[in-house]
Amino acid sequence: MAIDSKVTVEEFAHHCNGQMIPLNNSLSYFSVIPLEDSELQRLVYDPASAMPTGIRKIIPNLRIVVVAYLEKPGRGSNGAGPRVTFDPPARTRRMYSTVTDREDETYLFLAIKDSDIADYHDTFYYELASIVAARGDDDFTSRFRDLLREELSSNTRGELEEKSWRLKEQVVRRQTDFSKQTKLLDSYFEQSLADTLALYMHGLCCDIDVEAGPRQLASSHVRRRLVLLREMLPPPKGVALFPEELSPPT
Question: What secondary structure, in 3-state letters, does 201-224 show?
C-alpha cells in the first residue's frame, strides 16, 4: 500500500480496507508496522481473545489499525481530522488513538511508536469502552445507570478516573434528585461506564491494580461494578475476572 508520509485517518481507512486480517467474523486488524510474533500477540491477539463477545452486537465490524504515530490536525487543516504519520509529531500535537467510522465499519487507530505495552493496553481498552458506552442502547446501559444512582443516593465518594470524578463532583453539587435525567447526569453516566468498562476489559486480559487515593472509589464498589459488567458482558469461556477465579496450576 503506497501512501504519503502523512494521511488523514479517513483516507488511511479507505486505503487499508482490503488488507484487513480477520480475527473473527466481526473483528479484524491491519498493522502498517512490521510486528514480531510476540508483539502481535501482545498488541492484537491477547486483547482480542479476552474481549467479551457481547461487544460484537454493539460494534459489529471493528477494525483495529496499528500505526507508528498519530497527529492532531493543525491550523489550516480545513476540517481534516487526525493524521497517520511515520515521523514523530510535535509533543503538543501527538495522539495515541482515534476512532473513525466508514460505512458500517468502526476503525480504531492505535499509535505504538515510543509507547510501552501498558500504555497501549490502557489506550486500547479506554477507546473501545468509550465506543461501547456511547453506542450501547438503553437496555444495555440501564442496569449500570441504576447502580450509579444507588451510589449517588448513598453518598458514595470517589471514582475510577479523573474525568468521571470531576463530573460526579459537579452532579453532587448541582443535583439532588438523581432520578431526574439531565445532560450533566447523562455525561457522568457515560463517562463512568466507559472508565469502568475499560477497567473490566483490561482485567480480563491482564493483571491490573487500582491505585489507591483520596479520589478513588472504594474497592467494594469497584468490585460490585465489575461483577455487574460481567453479567452484562460475559467474558469468553475460560477467561477469569478476579484472581481467585483462576484454576490452580496442576
Answer: HHHHHCCCCCCCCCCECCHHHHHH
